[in-house]
Structures are given as C-alpha cells and as structure tokens.
Amino acid sequence: MRRPPLAPTVSIRRTFREFWPYTRGLRHLLVAGGTLAIVAAVCEVAAIGLFGHITDEVLSKQNLGAFWLPAAAWLGLAATAGLVSFVGSYLTALGGERFLLRLRDRVFEHIQTLTPDFFDNRRLGDLMARLTDDIEAIEELIGSGLVKLFTTLVSVVFFAGAAFYIRWDLALLTFLLVPAFLLVAKVFASRFRVVSARERLSNGIMNSVIEEGLSNQSLVQSYNRQGAEAERLHSEGDTWMRANVAQAWLSSLYGPVVQVIETICLITILGFGAWEISSGRLTIGGLLAFAAYLAYLYPAVQSLGQIALTVSEAAAGSDRVIEILTTRPAVTDRDDAVHMGRGRGHIEFRGVGFTYPNRRRPTLRDLSFAVEPGELVVCTGPSGVGKSTIAKLLLRFYDPTAGHVLLDGTDIRELSRESLRDNITILQQENLLFSGTVRENIAYGCPGADPDAVVRAAVMADVHDFVTTLPLGYDTPIGQRGRLMSGGQRQRIAIARAILRDAPVLVLDEPMTGLDAPTAARIMEPLKRLMAGRTTILITHDLRFIPEAAHKIVLEAVPRRSSRIRIKSARGRGSAPRPSRERVPVRDGRTGTVP
Ligand SMILES: Nc1ncnc2c1ncn2[C@@H]1O[C@H](COP(=O)(O)OP(=O)(O)OP(=O)(O)O)[C@@H](O)[C@H]1O
C-alpha cells in the first residue's frame, strides 16, 4: 500500500499564530501557573542562600545558636515552594486540558464541514490519531509547554543572577559554556523534528490498520486473513517502532552530551573555587551555595534544550492538524444563502454534468429529469453508472460541474445546506446506525422527539413488535453499528428514523440490498408508508417490488464514453416514455437527457 506523504512543514511562528487564539479565556490560568512557578523558584533561590549562610555561620563557626532562625526560615520557604508549585502545576494543567478540549472540539467541528470526498480519500485511523495524539502534542507546545518554557527561562535568570551575585567572575566563566548547550540543543532539535514527523505519520497509519482490522473482523475471520492482518499491523508497528527508536536514540544521546558539558563546567568551577578559597577570596559556604545554584541552573538550561525537542515533536503534530484545518470544504454555503422552510418537494436536475475530484472521466453528463411533489421515481441502471451520485448531488455533498439541481424551482446552491438537508431524508445502502439504544437511533434525526412519536414511527416501520421482545425494549443497545440486529431489523429501524424525521423528499439508495426475498417483501410495506405523500427517488437494481405506478429513470452505460438516461413507465420494461417527457438523442458523450 502506498504510504501517504508527510504533512507540509509549518513554521513554529505560524503554529503559534494558528493556535494561540484558542488560549483566549484560559490565559489567566496559564499566567497564574507561570507566576506561581516563579514564586517557587524564588523560594528555592532564597533557600539555597540560607544553606550557604548556615554553612558559613553555623557549620564553619560551630555556632548552634545561629542555626534555628535560618532553619525555620528554610522550612517556611520549602513549605511555601511546595504549596505554590502544587497550585501552579494544577492551574497549568487545568488551562492545558481546557485548551485541549477546545482545540479538539474545533478540529472536529471543522472536519464535519468537509464533504464526504475528504473522508473517502483518507484513512479513519489516521484522522483519529490527528484528533487525539497530535492535538495533545500541540497542547504541550502552546499550553503547558509555553508555561514550562517561561518558568524555566525565569529559573535560569534567577539562578544565574544568584550565581552572579555571589561571584560574578566565576559565573561569567560558567556562562562561557552556555553557547555549547545551545548549539547541542539546536542540532538535536532539528534532527528530532524530522524523526518526529515520521513517527506521527507512522502512528496515524498504524491506527488506521488497527481500526480497519478491528472493524472488519467478520470479513477477516471468514476469509482466514488473521495472519495477514497481524502481519500488516506488525509491519506498520515495526516502522513506528523504528521512528520511536530514532527519537529515543536522539533524546537518550542528548542527556549524556549535555551531562558532559555540565561536568566540565562544574569541575572548572570547583577547581577555580578551590584556588579562590585557598587564597582567602571565597568562603566554603559561598562556594557551596554557588555550586548549588549551578546544580539548579544546569538542569534548567538542560530542560530548555529538552523543551526544544518537545517543540520539535509538537510541531510535527501541529503540521498534521494544520493540514486539516486549512482544508476547505468542497461545498460551502453562499454568504446570501437562503434558509428555506419545509418545501413542497419538487426536484429537477437540469443539464447536470459531474466529474468526481481526481477523476478524469465524467460520471454524469447532461442529465435532466424532474420529479413532481409526492411522486415516486425509480432510478435504475447498471452498477457504477452514477445512480448514487444523483443522491450525493441532491444532498450537496458535491456541486455539479455543469447544470443545475433545483428544489422547488430554486437552485440548491442558493439554499443553506442545513435547510436543504432538513428537506431530504436519505436511506442508504448500508444502514448507518450508531452504537446507542433503539430509541436513540430512531430519534437520531429528531433529537428530543416525543417518546410516543418514536413508538408511532416504529409501529409504521413494522419494528415495534420486534423491539418489545428485546430485553430493555426501546432502551436496548443495538451494538457497534447496529450489529446486534439483523439486516432487516437494521433496515426497519432506519425506516422508523426516516418516518420520524418527516422530510418532504426521500432518497432510498438500494433499500433492499442484502435482504432475501421475504425480508425485502416485508420491508416494502413500511417503505410504502414512508414514501406516502413524499417525493421519492428510489435507487435500485431490484425491480421486483417496484410499485405499479412508479416512473423509471434508466441510466444506461452506452458503449465507449457515454451513458444515457431514459424514463419509462414502471409497468413494463421498454414501454413508452412518459407523455410529458420525450426522449432526446444522446448528446456529446456519456449521458443523454430527457428534458
Ligand atoms: N468519491 C468518489 N470519488 C471518485 N469516484 C467515485 C466516488 N464515488 C463513486 N465514484 C465513481 O463514480 C461512478 C458512479 O458511482 P455510483 O456510486 O454513483 O454508481 P451506482 O450507479 O450507484 O453504482 P451501484 O449500483 O453499484 O451502487 C463509479 O464509477 C464510481 O467508481
């Protein structure tokens, strides 16, 4: 399988510009967290000062009387530092988690504005990884990461300031080695970003393999493909492992490299300090306090470098989230889109042509037909000729590349998608149910529906008697995608949902697919009740149960680059066209028209 490319790299500045607005209303938490962390650092600086004082005034002079006051002050500082760092960490975590929640909501909201084409061209597991792991990585950059960066920087300034205060010349000597830290951090961070991008991609692919493997378990087991699936996961897991090992290699190497630089610094300081003490220019307490400040300072400098690695990792995640956020929906509402109320249900396709994105050959060309309010039209024709595409155009999952689709005489591009879709109910080939209860699934299109209305819809859909036999009746869970139900039961629950929704236009896309003849015949009764009084486009191969009075649209694939449409009476194959419409010659290619 072809591996998808890495998401385009985005600069850190752009990442901040993109995600910083999401911290609005949370910044006070982050600022409070940062401020408290600074207070904790100040307490630590002061505590180290007291340590130096105790060494010089108590230990060197063997004066126990001078011990108690600084010891009590030290204890007080330690308690204050503990308390403020606890509250600070909590507030930072609170701000970070709220940021995460907000960002995930936003990305999910955005994803739901994208047309089905976006999902058809991507793997679900990868999208899930972007909505979970990658978003968490961004939080580590913008939320808690920013606070950590700020507090670490402030700690560096404090400890360095304290070290300068004790001995500026020693401190200066120490600081000569700081550029070495920065250089190492820079080299590691750039390598880390490349490796992290690969790891993120690999994580997405591995999630996809798990998601596909688990959701298709019945297919996997019935085709004895368990070994192949395990192999597929192993192979992706292996790629992911390699990326992780490369990450671990870099971050493990980073520690010792920095440690060596740190040790060089400490030895230099101690040597220089010993010389200063022997010549009487520095006390032991002064040297110990100085060394203690350095012991705090170096880890802070080191964690600045570590933050650079975290930033690289987070940037790889944010590239993938920004890639989604910058994807524009193929179909949008116009600024002046009309919000129509309940329509009459007159449908017209006028000279419609359509080519799927990334396809060169058109699926529909110059297609015209009209359906009167309340009328049933059956759309039939060979597989792959474009029948379901008609439903997608009607719902504005795509816009036609030529011509117009009209609802009650208005081009549907002029309507808001929400109001258009409120007027249309689609019953798809594969019944899409959620893993809630029977009641939740029936009421899916009508949240808050009256329980009696749910039961009435179930009665009309011929599913009520069955539901009453379930252990919890309407509150019985139907399993993942309704898999605890039979195909016919799923279909009837979907019909009840459509009845409850009560839209004037109905699109039935192969409602009999996968059902045997008796089940299909049984479904036909509730379907007729559903269709009564609604404009219905029934897409089907199965003409056995087509109502007598139905008119037919036959999409025909004509040899070489054309297909044509005919409208016939449903009473017999090849019978005369409807009186109000006439067949016209096939025009330029794939489809012909009946205007
Ligand atoms: N998202 C898509 N991207 C690209 N091509 C697509 C997409 N969906 C469908 N097609 C192509 O468009 C053509 C028409 O598909 P459509 O699903 O409308 O056919 P159909 O007549 O409903 O077929 P069937 O009866 O088998 O369901 C097919 O050749 C199909 O491969």
UniProtKB/TrEMBL annotation:
<keyword id="KW-0812">Transmembrane</keyword>
<feature type="compositionally biased region" description="Basic and acidic residues">
    <location>
        <begin position="579"/>
        <end position="595"/>
    </location>
</feature>
<feature type="transmembrane region" description="Helical">
    <location>
        <begin position="146"/>
        <end position="166"/>
    </location>
</feature>
<protein>
    <submittedName>
        <fullName>ABC transporter ATP-binding protein</fullName>
    </submittedName>
</protein>
<dbReference type="GO" id="GO:0005524">
    <property type="term" value="F:ATP binding"/>
</dbReference>
<feature type="domain" description="ABC transmembrane type-1">
    <location>
        <begin position="31"/>
        <end position="313"/>
    </location>
</feature>
<feature type="region of interest" description="Disordered">
    <location>
        <begin position="566"/>
        <end position="595"/>
    </location>
</feature>
<dbReference type="InterPro" id="IPR039421">
    <property type="entry name" value="Type_1_exporter"/>
</dbReference>
<keyword id="KW-1133">Transmembrane helix</keyword>
<dbReference type="InterPro" id="IPR027417">
    <property type="entry name" value="P-loop_NTPase"/>
</dbReference>
<keyword id="KW-0067">ATP-binding</keyword>
<dbReference type="InterPro" id="IPR017871">
    <property type="entry name" value="ABC_transporter-like_CS"/>
</dbReference>
<feature type="transmembrane region" description="Helical">
    <location>
        <begin position="281"/>
        <end position="298"/>
    </location>
</feature>
<feature type="transmembrane region" description="Helical">
    <location>
        <begin position="29"/>
        <end position="51"/>
    </location>
</feature>
<dbReference type="InterPro" id="IPR003439">
    <property type="entry name" value="ABC_transporter-like_ATP-bd"/>
</dbReference>
<feature type="domain" description="ABC transporter">
    <location>
        <begin position="347"/>
        <end position="583"/>
    </location>
</feature>
<dbReference type="Pfam" id="PF00005">
    <property type="entry name" value="ABC_tran"/>
</dbReference>
<keyword id="KW-0547">Nucleotide-binding</keyword>
<dbReference type="InterPro" id="IPR011527">
    <property type="entry name" value="ABC1_TM_dom"/>
</dbReference>
<feature type="transmembrane region" description="Helical">
    <location>
        <begin position="71"/>
        <end position="94"/>
    </location>
</feature>
<dbReference type="InterPro" id="IPR003593">
    <property type="entry name" value="AAA+_ATPase"/>
</dbReference>
<keyword id="KW-0472">Membrane</keyword>
<feature type="transmembrane region" description="Helical">
    <location>
        <begin position="172"/>
        <end position="189"/>
    </location>
</feature>
<dbReference type="InterPro" id="IPR036640">
    <property type="entry name" value="ABC1_TM_sf"/>
</dbReference>
<feature type="transmembrane region" description="Helical">
    <location>
        <begin position="253"/>
        <end position="275"/>
    </location>
</feature>
<dbReference type="Pfam" id="PF00664">
    <property type="entry name" value="ABC_membrane"/>
</dbReference>
